[in-house]
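Good morning C.,

I know you're traveling, so I'll keep this short. The sequence:
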Amino acid sequence: MEIGMLWFDNDPKADLVEKIKKAAAYYRQKYGVTPDICFLHPTMLPKNGSVEASTSPHSPLPNVELRPSKSVMPNYLWIGVNPKSGEA
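The tokens, ready to paste straight into the viewer:
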């Protein structure tokens, strides 16, 4: 992803799925495209560190690929469209 939207959410009551859903909904509203990739700091992942569980078909976010990245600060999400998906 070359272009995306940086989203800040430090709400301690919201879990990761809820935070990504909010960011994705705003992205869809603002840009008219559904995001399919989200970079986040590795510490924001579930304790088991499993990215695969978050992107499985049974996940609440089956169409959003999560990628850990130390270049994204904690409480931030860099969300957008993967250029390989063909929507960009």
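Safe travels,
E.
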